[in-house]
Amino acid sequence: MPTFCSVSENVTQLIPDAGSILHTRVVQYRELLDSLPMDAYTHGCILHPELTTDSMIPKYATAEIRRHLANASTELMKLDYEREPQLTEPYLSKQKKLMAKILEHDNVSYLKKILGELGMVLDQIEAELEKRKLEYQGQKCELWLCGCVFTLADILLGATLHRLKFLGLSKKYWEDGSRPNLQSFFDRIQKRFAFRKVLGDIHTTLLSAVVPNAFRLVKRKPPSFFGASFLMGSLGGMGYFAYWYLKKKYI
């Protein structure tokens, strides 16, 4: 059992020394959280808001993206057939792959399946957080996923929960009282300065500047395949930036 039970906001060692039980736990949950299909959750929840509650994605976003998706496949086939000289083959190939991924994530049965699997992952994390309470019972320390030391696993989990809340999934997975340890974890990690600062700024930027500007741009009638992928990227990309920035902030 670790002998240290306190950590300050300035700690920079997010991955404990190899060979320790903390290191094993951090690696385990880093791999688990990194394996989650966040792009599929993001695309699916944007396209199927009926599966979400209190999503932070503007309501007009889904209708506009669907309008572009309706014409995207036809436009790509036409461009491929006509062999437009200004569009290179690598560009068209990339757009086709991106559209295929978005259309796959538009499958509501697939979305429900991966959201069910997400629930099982969060059950595992809820149980792990409960183990920490028993492991450090009676000790005065702030408990995190792998112990009483804040690690990279906590950054990953915090960024993941933040993204799920943004998509309108928090009430389904923890705010309904079904996972109280997860709720407590999310409440505590939001109080850390870096999370308040970075994620708060990203929400403000995303909702007040990035998304409106993205929709103004696509209203200038670019190809529909560009409009669909660009809007999806605008809505989804800021969350990935948050995760990247948080790692840089702590490392």
Amount of beta strand: under 5%
Number of domains: 1
Helix content range? 55-70%
Q: Could you describe the largest sheet, including whether it forms a barrel?
A: none
Q: What distance lies between the first and last C-alpha atoms, to the nearest angstrom?
A: 25 Å
- Structure classification: mainly alpha
Order of helices and strands: HHHHHHHHHH
Q: What is the strand tally?
A: 0
- Mean pLDDT score, rounded? 75
Shape: elongated
Unreliable segments of 5+ consecutive residues: 1-11, 208-228
The tally of helices reads 10
CA-atom Rg in angstroms:
21 Å
Keywords: Membrane, Transmembrane, Transmembrane helix
Transmembrane segments: 225-246
Family: Belongs to the GST superfamily.
Domain GST C-terminal: 58-225
If you had to describe this structure to a student in words, what would you say it looks like?
With 251 residues, the protein is mainly α. It has one domain (21-250). The chain is built from 10 helices and no strands. The chain has helices at residues 21-34, 38-47, 59-82, 89-105, 108-135, 152-166, 170-173, 180-189, 193-218, 224-250. The radius of gyration is 21 Å and the shape is elongated. The chain starts with 20 loop residues before the first helix and ends with a helix. Residues 1-11 and 208-228 have low confidence and may be disordered.
